[in-house]
Amino acid sequence: MGRTPGRPRAFDRDEALEKALVEFWRHGYETTSVAGLTAAMGIRPPSLYAAFGDKRKLFGEAVAHYQATHGAFTTRALAEEPTGRQAIERVLREAAVNYSDPAHPPGCLIITAGANHSPEAAEVEEELRGYRVAAKQAFADRIAEDADAGRIPADSDVEGLATFYAATVQGMSRQSQDGATREELERVADLAMKAWPL
């Protein structure tokens, strides 16, 4: 006899994942409890474990979901703009809009969700660090293209510029959490682009 199929889940998995993402975004990984997650997701703990595994696995999936949705503006800007300068400027300007959007928690999940972790959550911070390092390398790659094409001096400090703009994005995230408005963050973007080599 064939195995009796299980009952279908009584919730929308994608919708529940988005709600979990917002909880992690608002509170960070470590201070987000399973009870808080299930309350936000509108499910019971057994459903969370059946659908997503444990809290750690749910977080990993939430981060991937963030990268594909709320955080995708960075990847799109770096891929779509014709020059490194235009790509970096677009990242900064879209960060100003995204990080201050009242429709979701302020700032960037990748920048903030692993802060102030205990040793037990060190692998979470390492995972998030990997995303940040990759983003900085993507900045460097686009800046290097401008140097190679003669759009900026060939001896420009590509790594230094990439670190500077990554630090600017991270600072904009923190400032938005402290209440900075879109207009204030856009001024940060204006000033940061004045550091671009001519």
UniProtKB/TrEMBL annotation:
Ranges of residues in domain HTH tetR-type: 17-61
Record keyword Secreted present: no
Which regions form coiled coils? Answer: none
What terms describe the molecular function in GO for this protein?
DNA binding
Domain (Tetracyclin repressor-like C-terminal): residue spans on this chain: 91-188
InterPro entries found in the cross-reference section:
Homeodomain-like_sf, HTH_TetR, Tet_transcr_reg_TetR-rel_C_sf, TetR_C
Q: What is the designated name of this protein?
A: TetR/AcrR family transcriptional regulator
